[in-house]
Amino acid sequence: MIKFLLMAVLGLGTIYPDTLVVTNTQNNVITMETSNGFVYQVFGVEDIMDGDVLSVLFYDNGTDIITDDIVIDFNYSGFISKDFKGV
Q: Which architecture, in CATH terms, is 2-79?
């Protein structure tokens, strides 16, 4: 994470937060999705399950292309039931 913070300070990219929902967990790989449909995977993760909500920090690689952004950190934020219809 220090590497990405340094790159952001040097103007070589931006770190930004987002909230994602875990859509699949299998073999210590979690798949999570943003509210606008972008999908990311993180490897080597335990104790996360489908429906978990994660607060995620991304590094944008210094580009405007969302699909090359890197997950640099995340924290558990809660859970959404599959039956949840929104507010």
A: Beta Barrel (2.40)
